[in-house]
Amino acid sequence: MFIVKKIVTQFFMPIPFVLQLLIIGTALLWFTRRQVAAKIVLTTATILLFGMGFGFLSDHALYKLENTYPPLDIEAAQQAGIRWVVVLAGGHSSDAGLPVTSQLMPETQVRLNEGIRIYRQLNGAKLLLSGGKVFDPKSSAELMAGLARELGVKPGDIVLEDTSKDTDDEARLIKPMLGDQRFILVTSASHMPRSMALFTARGMQPVPAPVCHYFHREDTITPGDFFPRLDKIRNCQIVIHETLGLLAAEIKEAF
User: Fold this and answer.
1) Helix (H) or strand (E) holding 48
2) 147-159 burial: b if 16+ Cβ within 10 Å, else e
3) Strand partners, 211
4) What is the pLDDT of residues 104-125, one digit of tens each?
5) How far apart, in Å, do the first and last CA atoms of the chain sit?
């Protein structure tokens, strides 16, 4: 089921979806007499690519996703006596010939850096690193732990959850580890709404610490703003991925 979910999701991502439309439109144009249908499909693909490349279809949605929860109030966390910092992985690709910073995806590194920063401001805190192997011989948690130790985190303060495949798995596996204890949950701002929903659904008490914000208000205009941008397409992909994830979580909860 996990593999099927991953494969199906890819068909709704920006580039694959537009490519499907282009293939269908081209096939209609060259191999059938349905010229009007071909024009409609190809025009739709062009408009979608244009809208995604300039951010018209994603900026507002991404802003809402990333601002669902404010940045962590570290003083409030200190006063509450929270002692656990949970960092969810954001992907990796192990390669023994590369430094660990090149094996962890940039998003995972940002989450880990934030987790360590918070951990250092809480007396007696523990750092719980979460992320399984999925399609890799090493787990994300294992690689994150190695980097955390190199950055000065005491080995005895690191706890691993290294068998999960997705966020729902992480919530399920972390529940017996933390029980009813309050903990700080570190993940990307766009991923936080889904993560909070899945963790709270299991009766847990996460305190959100969103990081890795992709939407930034731009006060100046640059030449690049007049051309489609890859980062805008990436933002659209994030919105689609998280929307599908939230929808899947709601459907699963309903049944």
Assistant:
1) helix 35-53
2) bbeeeebeeeebb
3) 188
4) 999 999 999 999 999 999 999 9
5) 16
Amino acid at 11: F
The Cα diameter of the chain in Å comes to 72
Q: Specify whether the CB–CB gap between 228 and 53 falls below 8 A.
A: yes
Total residues belonging to the chain: 255
* Total Cβ atoms within 10 A of residue 13: 16
What percent of the chain is helix, strand and coil (3-state, nearest 5)? 55, 10, 30
Band the pLDDT of 15: cuts 50, 70, 90: very high
Task: Report pLDDT digits (tens) over 169-226.
Answer: 999 999 999 999 999 999 999 999 999 999 999 999 999 999 999 998 777 888 878 8
What are the domain boundaries of the chain? 2-63+233-254, 72-211
Q: Residue 124, exposed/middle/buried by CB under 10 A (0-12, 13-18, 19+)?
A: exposed
Are 180 and 205 in contact by the 8 Å Cβ rule? The answer is yes
CB atoms within 10 A of CB 228: 14
Q: If we measure between CA atoms, which residue out of 191, 192, 226, 188 comes closest to residue 207?
A: 192
CA separation for the pair 50, 119 (Å, rounded): 43
- Tokens standing for residue 155: 């080995």
Contacts of 236 (CB under 8 A, 6+ apart): 14, 52, 55, 57, 58
Q: Which CATH class name applies to 72-211?
A: alpha beta
Asked if 155 contacts 205 with a C-beta cutoff of 8 angstroms, the reply is no
Q: E-assigned strands of 44-96?
A: 84-88
